């Protein structure tokens, strides 16, 4: 299923549904109010809730009804509008780490990239309040002149996880979505010098997430999905999820030591092709449209304003 959180334009009501046959199906109304209208509560319901949703959806077919809406009748939200936490995995594509080490910027070069290692995943937390949905307009912060993009696959946690083994990790995954890690590189570089990451990654609108939460049964292999990010139609990033240094099970297992909960997000890290990796960086500008596409997960669109 392609689970979605959306607002119904005619009523302003927020609900949980499914993107199905080009339309949005309100699962809450379809279930007679038995299914929750909040995505985190929906995820907490686990397999019984997912099975009930699939059973209800099987009866919808292509017919319209009081619970079916065309895309222009709804306002799409991030699938998990306010996750408990966003765990960002750093430099999980080896070639992205390589391009960052060669960025010709004095503040960036002051960071000792030679100390970076892969004995286990490393990363940082991003502010859940920074999440915005597909189609959102993100304002360039007044404090940066170096706004960058990063396409990533995002793992959505399905159940409480603590000290999970690699072999059991997929039991704790609800599904995947797309993440565009917008970054203020000049601020990030200064924060790196203090060995922290905060405002460079967690400003308002810096975490576009969506369009849907795609459940595991929709994917034959989540580690063989093509990833493409385009700026105004130009391909900037072109990779495959199979190039991740640490895959889903390893990421979930490692990060579970902090305690993971339904709706939490773990990001994959970015492949190469970011603006910071260019000889002459082409930072995002007002009027740019960023389309982050991952096979079988859809396209996450962000407008820079």
Detailed description of the structure:
By secondary structure, the chain is α+β, with helices and mostly antiparallel strands. Helices cover 17% and strands 30% of the residues. The protein contains 7 helices and 19 strands. The strands form 3 sheets. Strands 1, 2, 3, 4, 5, 6, 7, 8, 11, 12, 14 and 17 form a 12-stranded mixed sheet that branches. A 5-stranded mixed sheet has the order 9-19-18-15-16, with no helix packed on it. Strand 1 (2-8) and strand 2 form a beta hairpin. The radius of gyration is 19 Å and the shape is globular. The mean pLDDT is 92.
Task: Explain the layout of strands and helices.
Layout: E1 2-8, E2 14-20, E3 23-26, H1 27-30, H2 39-44, H3 46-58, E4 68-69, E5 74-76, E6 86-89, H4 94-101, H5 106-109, E7 123-126, E8 131-132, E9 137-138, E10 147-148, E11 151-157, E12 173-180, E13 183-184, H6 185-193, E14 207-215, E15 226-231, E16 234-240, H7 248-255, E17 265-267, E18 289-294, E19 298-304
